[in-house]
Amino acid sequence: MGNVTFNKVSKRYETNKSYALKDFNLQVEDGELIVVVGPSGSGKSTLLELICGFETLTSGDILIDGQSIQDKHPKDRDVAMVFQNYALLPHLTVYDNIAFGMKIRKESKKVIEEKVTWAAKLLELESYLKVKPKKLSGGQRQRVALARAMVRKPKLFLMDEPLSNLDAKLRDNMSQEIKKLHEALHATMLYVTHDQIEAMTMADRIVILNQGEIQQVGSPSEIYQEPKNLFVAQFIGRPSISLFTCKGTKRGILLEEEIEIITKKQVLEEDRNYLLGLRSEHIQIVTEGEVHLEAVLQKVDYLGGESLLYLQYKNCSFTAKAYGDVAYKKGDTVKIRLDLEKAHYFDQETKENIRRNGT
Ligand code: ADP
To answer: Is the CB of 13 under 6 A from ligand 1?
Structure first.
């Protein structure tokens, strides 16, 4: 078992005026892989440090399997942490690095051997057990760190940006390996990253943090398709969501102060300012049918199966996605249709998404 309850967890460091983490509420189910994502300084490491016991809570409570961990010594909390810098002991072999904690806990030689063999097999480290860490690649070192965490069979794995030191290709492989490992171990994992792609590809559920506060909790598709506010919409998804200024009118919406689009029913409060957000796949270049605006093509990124088209309308830059070959070139004026069914409307004042589906 390894379910975790965060009950209004807050942390304010004595030297700071503002909270590093504020009213953090979350129920993590046994066996879930939760990815906590947010920009630098949003409170991700603070969250992990509170769980480990490296820091104390200002208020609230954290429970593992229904039991508060606040009064427990860090070593008795039954959590294992994997860091960005693998923290391996350079003078010990891979075997001894994995076995280190068990030796300190004075587990029997037989048990240690069984566990090291089990972890090394799962992480494909069997042929490296006798070598020292300096002979290994970054990815292999991180696998040793994972194996060392695994042999403790903790209730909860905490991972703090474990892949940030690896190059792009290795990161991709390792993130898939961690996901596989998670499935094989049925372990509860809390994985922290600033990388939204890692979050999207790995998570059962994503928690988005900004300035110490949860912005949204949801599955990757919920977060992408139904962002609760402007921050979430802009943080998740590449290319970034395109934004147009707009205002409510009697008959529909006024886009970029100029283009009135009549909608079937009134979506926006009249004369109130909003930002209309659309993902690139919901903006199309068209040659016929309904056209909402004409824009100038600034740049085309050819990605193979699809292309990204960077467009400009007056002061507004936005991005469209096209599939297959693109017949347009830089400087061309093209006709644009917006798929308003998929539009998000963010209130200019509150930044909340006022409706999560379109017109
Ligand atoms: P993240 O991991 O998302 O980058 P952190 O949890 O490290 O964010 O930091 C959250 C906020 O708490 C930041 O404003 C940071 O400056 C502050 N902070 C973190 N650790 C300490 C500390 N030991 N003392 C004082 N302030 C801290």
So the answer is: yes
